[in-house]
Structures are given as C-alpha cells and as structure tokens.
Amino acid sequence: MAKEHTVAVRVRYGETDQMGVVYHPNYFLYFETGRTELMRASGVTYSEMEKAGVFLVVTEASCRYRAAARYDQQLRIITKVDQVGKATIRFSYRVLGPDGTLLAEGYTELASVDGSKSPVRLPREVSDLLAKS
Fold first, then answer.
1. Could you report the per-residue pLDDT of 71-118, keeping only the tens digit for each?
2. Of 5, 47, 84, 115, which alpha carbon lies 20 to 30 A from 55's?
3. Active site residue: 17, 72, 82, 114, which one?
4. What pLDDT does residue 1 have?
5. Are 102 and 67 in contact (CB under 8 A)?
C-alpha cells in the first residue's frame, strides 16, 4: 500500500490569519481534500458509499506542523493509504510548499458506520480498491 496520490490546492485568503499564514486547523481540510481525491482516483466516492448506507467518521487525527504555508501559495497534498482494516482506514498526509518544503505531516483514522452510527464492515469492493491505493 505504498502508492501515493497528489492533489494541488491554493491557499485562500480566508484560510489565513492576519499575517497571511495558514491557520492551523485548515490543514485538516487539506487532509480531507487529499483523502477524498485519493479515494476518487481509486474508484471510491464518499457519495456512493453514503447512498449505500456506509459512512466514514474520523476517529483519530494528528498533524505535525513543520513550516508556515502562506496566502496564495500552491501546496501539494500527498496522501496514501497506510492500513485498511475490517472497519477502519488509516491515511497519511504530507503537505509540501511550492519549493517542495515539508510544511506539515499527519494522519487520520476513519471508521465505517451505518446510518445509526453503529460500526459496520467496509464494503469489500471499497476495502479492495483502497488496499491497492
């Protein structure tokens, strides 16, 4: 499971503080963008899973900040699937600046639940597709 997916995002003004530096919780939005696009590229979409009654909820999240991202910079979000369990998926992320500098790195773990928020197994086709990512 070492395949990585990269998506570019441009820092918007509203994501920064008065000094033009990305406000720290916005990195989790960048992680979400990376995760969503990796899943889409793998053939899995949140909307289709939700139509089938399976939802992914974040159960753990971590971000280590290395350097500041600034307004209007084009960032690269590099995402990979670290682990696919029976009802969980762990993703890892690296956020790189325009010159390739590591700005932040982290991970999220998501659990698969049904509409009543009870744990359920990941659909086999989803776990198979993500295990290949």
1. 999 999 999 999 999 999 999 999 999 999 999 999 999 999 999 999
2. 5
3. 17
4. 45
5. yes
CB-based contacts of 43-52 (< 8 A; 24+ apart in sequence): 43/129, 44/126, 44/129, 44/130, 49/123, 49/126, 52/123
Give the C-alpha separation, 70 to 109, whole Å: 27
> Which two tokens mark 43?
């053939």
φ, ψ at 125 (rounded to 5°)? -65, -35
Is 17 assigned a catalytic role? yes
* Beta-carbon contacts of residue 77 (< 8 Å; ≥ 6 apart): 6, 7, 8, 9, 30, 31, 33, 34, 93, 94, 95
